[in-house]
């Protein structure tokens, strides 16, 4: 339960940043942006929590 709550908090924090839906621009910083994007989106904690995040917010809104 505790790790699920930690993942939920990670999702809430990530959701409030522009990195959640970031598409890296094609400029000199692209390589750095791609690396950050991959670190965030390949995070296993965030991947596991994806379902819980949407499930939680879907049922909280009803």
TrEMBL record:
InterPro entries xref list: GDNF_alpha
Organism (species): Pediculus humanus subsp. corporis (Body louse)
Protein name, per record: Uncharacterized protein
